[in-house]
Automatic annotation (TrEMBL):
GO terms for cellular component: cytoplasm; membrane. This is Delta(24)-sterol reductase. PANTHER family: 24-DEHYDROCHOLESTEROL REDUCTASE, FAD-BINDING PCMH-TYPE DOMAIN-CONTAINING PROTEIN. The chain crosses the membrane at residues 21-41. It is an enzyme of class 1 (oxidoreductase). Coiled coil: none annotated. It is found in: Endoplasmic reticulum membrane; Golgi apparatus membrane. It comes from the Bacteria. InterPro entries: Diminuto-like, FAD-bd_PCMH, FAD-bd_PCMH-like_sf, FAD-bd_PCMH_sub2, Oxid_FAD_bind_N.
Length: 530
């Protein structure tokens, strides 16, 4: 590299690192917009050219053929999907894809709607945007509809999917009534609560380590035009916990529940109800998803600042994507002036920038800074330990807002040991958990995520909680197996032919053993050294 090239590279890295907002506005947003348009056109063209639900069986046979070829080749490599590692919500990139045999699982069709059984059958690469846009005009919606359009059914099942209806329906995996997977011996297996029962309950959170998902049946519920939201500012930690728990347990009165915690002693609890009618005396319609609207978390804070409660009506898809434009509140770190009215009016339509491009433009400096000074975690805590969790995050991180989303875990003894009801001090079981989402730059002096995350993981384990595995995982395998009961999972991996030869364990895929930062991945890919 010449001196001029070196200087240019150094200048580019300086701009990416120290003037990320300007870079994102001038370069990243236009590139992201063009990229998204290109991807949309490419996908639409591919969809019209190749979409054929009637060909589902043939495409599954293509997956089976690849696995049988792997067996004929001597089972020399581990297997994984060929989907690029950049196409994920994780801040990390899976490096194992560089050494494993990539199996093409090109399955992205909606296969059928059964309104009598209230289910929709889909392939694993169907995403939330595709599914909700298909269902809502027909008067239906997935019982749990996670935030971002690009989240896929397969990722939400094999990984993690929560939304504010999860207090009624559980995680995304819990609204699935059937899975179809191709095992490592090249066999198509249908799994339901009555058929291949043990495998059905083990597939969620397995991260593709038991087989390749090729179809799923998902529970749907009637959709309505609006979500009527009640905003309730609450002060005092005890009141926050008590009122949030009361709202979360009221599954008859509340279709949606969430809270944004703005400080140790202040929060806004939101209760939502599906409705087709508007009562103007209660509140007005707020199409919060329009490009010029304030970022949702800042809009919510106006209710706290005004110390008043009240209602408003949000159109259904606007509600589903209320946090999308601002990536909850992470956009403020990328474009600090992004919520300015002038910026929203002129460029709000371009938000959010493409996640893949955000990863691609990471530099070594931003990697070091984010590893040390940024937290991006979802911790699933028993609601009985919510106060302990809020206190812990305040004492150790001081990062706000915090996102609280309640979720119910079915009380089923056959359910995957990875997540299960927790035991109360009186010995009884409770199925209510809460996802505590911590995203951003902690204000705690001297905070170092490399030190604090292992402490947080230990705290969660000691309080019968679970870590969402899309995020960074620093715990050892021994600690991982303490947090997640592997007895059911290990039994199935031992029983399924070729399973352990074909697939890593979950820990190998989700821990730092299997993932690296994007800038490191680019180096590994270039040099093919892992």
């Amino acid at each position: 590299m010449t001196t001029l090239q070196t200087r240019a590279a150094n200048l580019f890295e300086h701009i990416l690192t120290h003037h990320r907002g300007i870079f994102a506005t001038v370069f990243l947003l236009p590139l992201s917009t063009a990229f998204n348009i290109w991807v949309a056109l490419r996908n639409r063209l591919a969809f019209y050219r190749n979409s054929a639900p009637a060909q589902h069986d043939a495409r599954v046979q293509a997956v089976i053929a690849q696995i049988k070829q792997w067996r004929r080749d001597g089972c020399r490599e581990k297997l994984c999907t060929a989907r690029p590692g950049w196409n994920s919500m994780s801040e990390m990139v899976p490096k194992y894809k560089l050494t494993h045999r990539n199996i093409r699982v090109e399955l992205y069709d909606i296969l059928g709607l059964d309104t009598e059984q209230q289910t929709v059958r889909v392939e694993p690469l169907v995403n939330m945007g595709q599914l909700s846009r298909y269902l809502i005009p027909l008067g239906w919606m997935p019982a749990v509809t996670p935030e971002l359009d690009t989240l896929t059914v397969g990722g939400l099942i094999m990984g993690f999917g929560v939304e504010t209806s999860s207090h009624k329906y559980g995680l995304f995996q819990h609204i699935c009534s059937a899975f179809e997977i191709v095992t490592a011996e090249g066999r198509l297996v249908r799994c339901t609560p009555e058929q291949n029962t043990e495998l059905f309950y083990a597939i969620p959170w397995s991260h593709g380590t038991l087989g390749f998902l090729v179809a799923a049946e998902i529970k749907i519920v009637p959709a309505k035009k609006y979500v009527k939201i009640h905003y309730q500012p609450v002060t005092g930690q005890d009141d926050i916990v008590a009122q949030f728990e009361a709202a979360s347990r009221d599954t008859a009165g509340n279709d949606f529940v969430e809270a944004l915690v703005y400080s140790r002693d202040s929060a806004v609890i939101m209760r939502g109800k599906l409705t087709d009618t508007i009562d103007a005396e209660d509140g007005a319609v707020n199409p919060i998803g329009r490009w010029y609207k304030p970022w949702f978390y800042l809009h919510v804070k106006t209710w706290l600042d005004a110390a008043r409660s009240g209602y408003e009506y949000i159109p259904l898809r606007h509600y589903f994507h209320r946090h999308t434009r601002s990536y909850f509140w992470m956009m403020e770190e990328i474009i600090p002036f992004g919520n300015h009215p002038l910026f929203r009016a002129l460029l709000g339509w371009a938000l959010p920038p493409n996640i893949e491009l955000l990863k691609f433009t990471e530099t070594e400096t931003t990697r070091r800074l984010s590893e040390a000074h940024q937290i991006l975690q979802d911790m699933l805590m028993p609601v009985s330990h919510l106060k302990d969790a809020l206190t812990y995050f305040d004492d150790h991180c001081d990062v706000y807002p915090l996102w609280l989303s309640p979720m119910a875990i079915p009380d089923n003894p056959l359910h995957s040991g990875f997540i299960h009801p927790h035991t109360l001090p009186d010995g009884n079981q409770d199925t209510l958990y809460v996802d505590v989402g911590a995203y951003g730059l902690p204000r705690k002096p001297g905070f170092d995520n490399r030190v604090e995350l292992p402490k947080l993981e230990k705290f969660v384990t000691e309080h019968q909680g679970f870590q969402a595995l899309y995020a960074k995982t620093l715990m050892s395998m021994e600690d991982f197996r303490t947090m997640f009961d592997h007895s059911h999972y290990d039994k199935l991996r031992a029983e399924l032919p070729y399973c352990r030869a074909a697939f890593d364990e979950v820990y190998d895929k989700v821990s730092m053993r299997g993932r690296v930062a994007p800038v490191e991945y680019r180096h590994l890919k270039k040099n093919r050294v892992v």
